[in-house]
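Each letter names a residue; the fold follows as tokens. Both lines appear below:
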Amino acid sequence: MDAQALAPALFPLAEARAAPNAPGRLSAEIFRHGTLELRWYAPKGIDTQVPHTQDEVYVVVSGSGWFRRGEARFAFAPGDALFVAAGIAHRFEEFSDDFGCWVIFYGAQGGEAAHKGA
């Protein structure tokens, strides 16, 4: 049987919420497959993240607030998805205490746009 067939297919929210962050990380790793990385992110108080080296998508599970990407600011709520290209400054602002989201990192270091045609 190949490795893909053995990879998990389901990632329960309750388990993600209980997963610990690795030392020095702001989110908990839930799954990794090739360049894809699935994490759980639920900052408390303020969001101190810095730009990442891969493109990423956030899928909001609970809570609401504002998402800043560069100079743009977007209101978010449960069910919303947010995209950030690699290297772009971003953070969550004025979010509710129950805020939590899936984070999906994927693609080449430097982002998909940096490797167009590669």
In short: The beta strands are 28-33, 36-41, 55-62, 65-69, 72-76, 81-84, 90-93, 100-106. The radius of gyration is 15 Å. The chain has one domain: 25-111.
